Records
---
Amino acid sequence: MIKKIYLFILLLAFFSFQAKSQGIRFYWNNLNESSNRLQGKLMGENYYISSLANSNYFLQKDWVDATIELVDGDIFDNVKVRYLAFGDELIAYNDKIRSLYIVDKNIVKQFTIQAISNNGDIKDQKFIKLFYDRIAGGDRYFEELYSGTRSLLAFHHIEEVKVSPFTDKMGVMRDSEFRLNVTYYIYSTNNIFLKLQKKKRSFMKILPGHKKEIRKIFHQNKIILLDENSMVQAFTLLDKADLFN
């Protein structure tokens, strides 16, 4: 009798632990045929979105389709995601259980989002996970704008800034607002990050031995660094001219 009671208690504790675990983690089972490990599944912790977060924390205004590649090679297509720029996390929607979760960054290698540009065109935005070894370092998601001898990266981050009190569109009085900032980097495979600004002299500061060539390339191609596209154009031409070696 005592053994039966003891066994019942053990089973009850086991199922109780399983129930709690399911409330914390999600596992998505659409693996490749080559997958045979539990760690290969897409997983993460619950994410509860507030109206404030929905309006201010994300790079995208709405959910978009993405392809997520894990470090072990598993690939998940057509996943609904939004990039949480206020915290550097990837949030996914699991339509099977109608819930949101933070994708475990430890298992992600990269993801590609189908973004809608300002003119309505659909373009791919590729984000890669890299270890950032500076202040507030750790694994970060960077958008890869160009990949060649060096990579041009963009780190999207939303910051809360104190402002004069105002009433938001919901009628709530606030004294802060959320602003999107983008920091650009030249990245080399030996994990060196060099900050880059949308200025010609920023390129010349990073490549001081090629100031003449940089001026010539900018002049011949009439490059004015007004936006991200012009930065990519300049970066591409400088790489083709072999100035990064």
---
Amino acid sequence: MGVKSLKEIDAAIKAANTQRDNETIEDFSTRRWNELPRVYYKELPAKLKKEADKVSIDGARRIVIESYPVGSLDELLRQPDHFTELIKRAFLEARYLIESIDTTPPEKTGNIKVDEATAEMWQPVSLIAIDFLEAWERVTGQTLPKVVKLPSLAGKRVEKLDFPVDKVNSKIWDILGEDTKGQIRFISAESLKDKRKGKQINILYAIDFENIDKAVSITRRLTPYDELVYIAISALFSVGNDYITTAQIYNAMGFEGRPSKYDIDKINKAITKMSGARIHIDNLEEIQAKYKYPVVKYDGSLLPMERASIIINGQLAEAAIHIFREPPLISFARGRKQITTIERKLLASPISKTDQNIRLQTYLIERISRIKNDSKSSNKILFETLYSETGINTAKQKQRAPEKIKQLLDHYKECDFIKGYKPDTLEEIKAADGVAIHY
């Protein structure tokens, strides 16, 4: 792209970011990526050159090292100053992606953690990894035997997610400390309805984390945040993404913009935990009782996958994951037709995504989905049940809950997930024993 002025770049960004009439989200996403300005360093306006200069030398060094066969760079690595100089020269030969011309740094809040995270996300200019590697080849004369073999794909965004509402999925996230130390029995919902059987029918479930490296510093239990990552990965897989990046997962979870280093680390830890966790599901008792569910006997990884290098939308993803099949707990719910489809915008809620808040968000989505899909289900959500199911136990938590509930329900109303709810003022909600959902 031969543009050189901020005005020209701004016009190109606006054109790329505008969805056309009758253009699908998938087509818009692909076109947007292809049409966003890509400008060689020497053509960048002065303000954007300053931003390009902030690109991490360490990050570029890592891209180069991970893109060449082991041992092929040994001679260069023994000359660190020369190696760094070559990387700097490659910067000048490479193109940069411009998604924003907002060159004004975000205002500081005084909260160090928040300011660092905001600064990480503020990146008006980013180096295109594959262009940088090609520039590196021109500068050094070294070929790229590994890079040319990497699959190059167009990553697909998700606007809808399949949300499991079965009993196993509703119970296992955040109830277990360490391994299950044997099987947990979940009472089949069907056996509770069928009084003639005279006994309860169980679904057997077990999990262990023995395959996770003991040196890895992660909690050996499943959390609500893990479930959100799991659902996001499943949604991305269902629209045709076999290879998935942390940035795609972050977006599918309801976040906007780029993930910070903190977010990337948190998502990667969830992935490491779930891929290393081994689960066992067996619904033989249901089948023997002649309930019309598919036979499920699964013994394997909670998240069957491998780490991979991949070029997605022209960017080299250093820690993408290659998914082998639909995540098994989603398949389990789908086979039982105990799954609901929600729009991604529902997850872009106005409250922060702490485990406690995700627990509340998940419960409300599940409960409202049942209200909408089951005419026999009461449309009233009782706070006593909600608190019990979401771990809201202390007086302080119960004091804060009504405001969060109202924020979420207002958000769901804006998203057309519900038409309204009663009572609908904060004071009335605080005094009530529950809310009635209107859809």
---
Amino acid sequence: MLQEVKTTCKLKQPLVTDMGLSYDIIVKSTAAKFLAFDSPEEAAQSMYDSIEDSLDTTDVKWEDRRKFWEDVIKEMTAIDQNFSLEVAKIYFKLVIETYGTPKP
């Protein structure tokens, strides 16, 4: 059984876990998780679900959550730019389907 990792905000290192993992390791492992999918569609859906779940988190500030996901995307792009671009396109379509087109 997988044990849920509880995240907390500690000083200037948001999302450092109670298990002692560093922020950078969490970012890299999260990016690797999405890049390990067989298709960009699966990766985008998993990313969408993960980000949506993080929106319900009240114990972490919005700015910290946003920075975390931005860092994950940067890491993905650094590892595999083409796959990450395809994931981003599909992810954006999922957001548009859920929330509609952004207003100018």
